[in-house]
Each structure stands twice: as C-alpha cells, then as structure tokens.
Amino acid sequence: MASGETHEYVSSLLRRSFRRPDGRVGKQTLANLSALPDAAIDAVEAVLKGKTLLDADAVDSGLAVTRSLPHGHVALVAAQAARLSLPQLLGPPCRERDLAYALIVSRVVRPRPKSATLPWWEDVTLGPDLGVAGASRDEVYAAMDWLHARQDAIEAELARRHLRGDDQRGAMAMFDLSSSWVEGSCCPLAGRGYSRDGRKGTLQIEYGLLTDRVGRPVAIRVFPGNTADPAAFIEAVEVVRTKFGIGELTLVGDRGMITSARIEALKELGGLSWITCLRAPAIKALAAADGPLQMSLFDAQDLAEITHPDYPGERLIACRNPALAQLRAAKRESMLTATEALLNKITIRAQEGKLAGADGIGVAVGKVIDKYKMAKHLTCQITDTSLTVSRDQAGIAAEAALDGIYVIRTSVPATVLDAPATVGAYKDLAHVERDFRNIKADDLDLRPIHHYLPDRVRAHVLICMLAQYLTWHLRRALAPLTYTDEHPPARANPVAPATRSTTADRKAARHTTTEDLPVRSFRGLLEHLGTLTRSTITIGDRTFDKISTPTETQQRAFNLLGTPIPLSLES
User: Fold this and answer.
1) What distance in Å separates the CA atoms of residue 113 and residue 455, rounded to the nearest whole number?
2) DSSP assignment letter at 449
3) How would residue 59 be classed by pLDDT, with cut points 50, 70 and 90?
C-alpha cells in the first residue's frame, strides 16, 4: 500500500443484546457475516426486521397483481381540491357530498354525461376511495338536488374569499352571459333565443357567470333561453346585493350587458359602480364635429379622458388601438369583397338575360347584400336589365376614421382607478370569456344539456362552475408543465395588445419546459397523469396497494402542488 493511502475494512456481525443480572445491558456476537455476499447480508437484516422475503423467480411464489387502476389524474385533482377545502365548501360529510364531490372531480378529469361517468368510477381509484363505485342514477340525482340546495351558501363563501376588495379599491366582479343548447323538448327552461353556439333553431338555456377580476368563478345563474341580457344582469346584481351582502362593488360588463337602461337601474340601487364600453352610435356622436372625441387626442398617446354632458358624474376614457384598427380595416375590406362577389353573380345573370325585371333583380339583391352586414357601404342601381354596384366611399371613410377606437364608460372615481387601470379592468373581461370556453368546450364540455327538470339543469351548471373553479387553480399551478404563460409581461401601455413572455415562446418553440420535460396541453397532462396507476398486490395471505413508479413529469406535477403522491383519495 502506498504511503498516505488508507484502506477501509467493513465487518458485518450478527449480535444480540441481553440484560445482565446486575441490570446492565450486554452485547454478544453470534456470527460474523462478513464473508457473505452483500445481498445475503441484506436479506438476513430484512428478515430480522420482520419482513417476509419471497423468491420472485419461483413459479409458485404466490405473488399476484390482482388489479391496477388509473390513479394519478384523479389524485392530482383531489389534491388541488383539498388545498381549496372544496369538500368542506360543498357541505357537511354525507353520502350526497361524496357523490357531488365525485361528480365535480370527474368533470375536471373526464367530462362526460352522468350515464357515462357512473360506470367509469369503478375503473379508476375515485370510485372505491370515495365509496361511490356502484352508485345508482337515483343516488346521483339526489346528490345533485342536495348540491343545488346548497348553492347560495357555496357561492356566498366564494364571494367572501374572492370579492372582498382591498384598502385601495373596493371589490370588483366580472359578469357575462352565454348559452348552450338543450337536447329534447321537455325542459321548461329551454327557449328560443340567440344561440352563442351557432346552433340556430335549437332550444337553449342561458347562464350568467360572475367571476372575480382574475377570472375565478364565484357564482352562476341559469335563465330561460329567451331571457334578454339586461334582465339576466339585473338578477345577477340582486344576487350580489342580497345573498352575498356586498354593498360596495364594481361590476364590469361589455357594451351589450351594461346598457344605459341598466346603468340607470344601478344608480337607483346605490353602492354599485360599473365599467363598460360605449356602443358604436354613441362613439360616433362623440366624434361629431363639435364633440370631444377628436383624432388629435391620439397624436401623442393611445388613451385620453374626455367628458360629455350626456354622461354626468361619469368618466369617459377614449382609446385607440392601432393593431385593432388594422384588423377591422382588413375585415371590412374582406367582407366588402365577398359581398361584391355575390352581387356580381346577379349582375352577370342580368346581363345574360337569365334574370329580368327590376323587381326580380331587387329581390335577388335583397337576399345577399346584407349577408356580411355591408349593405350600408354599397349603392345599387337597378334597372329591368342591369345591376350596377358601387361603394359608398364617404361612408367607408367615416367608419374607417373610428377603426380601433373604443370608449370606456365608468362611474369609478379616478382616485380609485386611474385611466390605465380602468382600461385594464375592462380588458379583464377576457378572463370570463376564457372561463366560458373552458366550461363549454375546452375542459368541461357543459353542452349540450340533457336534463329537463329546472333544478337539475341548475345543478349541472353549478357542477361545471365548481369544476372550472378547480381547473382555474390547476391551470395556474401546472403552468410550468403546459403551454400556459407562467409570467405574462405587464403591459406598459394598457391599450396595446397582450404579449407573451420569452419563456412561453421558448416552450412553444421547443415543446420542452425549462427543466427539459415534455410540454403538454392541460388536457394532455391529465391524460398522462392517468397512466400513474395503483395496483393491488397479493403475496400469500397478504394484500396491499402500491403506486407505480411515477415519471419525472408526474412527480413534478405533484411537486408543483406541494403534496406527495397520495396512496388514496380523501373527500
């Protein structure tokens, strides 16, 4: 051995402890195991600790994997639900709560009709862990009725959590309305109205969603399909005032929701302020020759506050978005071109004698001229044998002058929200629109409605809202593993379009996270988590559960929630 080198000798001894007659503890070496292979020494140690060793190569070893169930996706959603105290939010422990909770988790993991969800519970750990496997349809309907009866209490707690405001400004809530079509013809809530799904001719229901400023769902209300937007808005206001007990609140809604008539109603109620946007005719009136809205306002900036006697006690914030102006100009040109193409076919038919008479040509023109809402910009000269179409260049130029311009209308004082903050608050309505996309299609698949009892419809929509509440938090927590922009840049100019961070662009380009893990969509990540299984293993007369080894992505997902991978779910 060279000078300065050391050699380590390891001995493995089998020893026992015993009590001497004088009360002292003695040690006795029974055997020196140093000559045995390391595996044999480990086996002796395991046996002495009470473990049972089994020869895995033996055919009759008695080891069997009796069942493996997908576990990771429901475990992750349940872990997020536990962080939000969702089971406690629903109500006291009972059979109905377990079923309602299972319906909400299922809607996040695998949105399907109830008839398809019930048998699925037996195929994942959700069913046996929550004790809902084998539940009957009647039990599920009873749980939905129980949940609907708890709706006011649930929403009041969500409002307490998220609509409290702060010292600088009061609470702020976003409200918008959407609709979904109804299968069948027996639902009393189903009516014929404007379909936001593009399902013309179908019966539908409407529902209004109330969220906090960042898009967390707080409350939802279902209305008959033929309810006008303003009526739904007033009912939402009454919910806020009477059931949530919030006296000072700023409601944010689009120009079709918070109309002048609704504003007058808000003034009478008191304690409620608003942020909305003017309609095009009102903006055009402000831009008249003697009006306060002049293009020179935007020479050096993109927004400016103006006043007008028609809006006493209110602030008007005029904004001009150059990107939006280009978009609207291009859209108008494309629709004009498409309309002219339709009219050109009529012109050719008239020239060829296939269409004659001013009345016949006029009827043909009337069928197509306003298909793209461009009749206001076209002039048609009709004779018995011809059609001549020309553009109203003066009208087009007048409309183009207002491209990209919108005017925010608010009663919130500047000391509470300055002009840029007010514009930002109005743009936060995009969060509600995102929630509707998630609820209706992207994540939760609310539509179509299969229930026909009004309270069951309301319970179904409430389940989807609570599932969206879960999804909202999950999307934020799991953002590092998805294409979601974790840290979107703050807008230096509130009027300018939103931008993505360089990190988000990198993820989108490379399809890997900053930790070199695969980037997935939110739905794709849940599906990947579903491959994390829990197996029931039997060895001899012993049975136990074991989770499969998680992938790096699966382990990272649970780490982002700050929780270990649970062996079982709890409600």
Assistant:
1) 17
2) B
3) very low
CB 512 within 8 A of CB 478: no
The tens digit of pLDDT for each residue in 270-326 reads 778 889 999 988 999 898 878 898 888 888 888 899 999 999 989 999 999 888 899
DSSP string, 74-127: HHHHHHHHHHTTHHHHH-SSSHHHHHHHHHHHHHHHS---HHHHHHHGGGSTHH
Residues 222 and 461: their CA atoms lie apart, in Å, by 8
CA atoms of 189 and 181, how far apart (whole Å): 11
Q: 3-state class of 512 per DSSP?
A: strand
d(CA 72, CA 50): 31
pTM: 0.80
> At CA 324, angle to CA 332 and CA 291, rounded to 5?
90
Helices and strands counted in the chain (H then E): 20, 15
CA distance 224 to 232: 10
Question: Using an 8 Å Cβ cutoff, are 491 and 498 in contact?
Answer: yes
Residue type at 261 in one-letter notation: A
Phi, psi of 198, rounded to the nearest 5 degrees: 75, 20
Q: For the chain, give percent helix, strand, coil, nearest 5.
A: 45, 20, 40
Angle at 245 between CA 242 and CA 248, to 5 degrees: 110
> How many CB atoms neighbour CB 565 within 10 A?
19
User: pLDDT band for position 571 (50/70/90)?
Assistant: low
**Tokens describing residue 260:** 């002048």
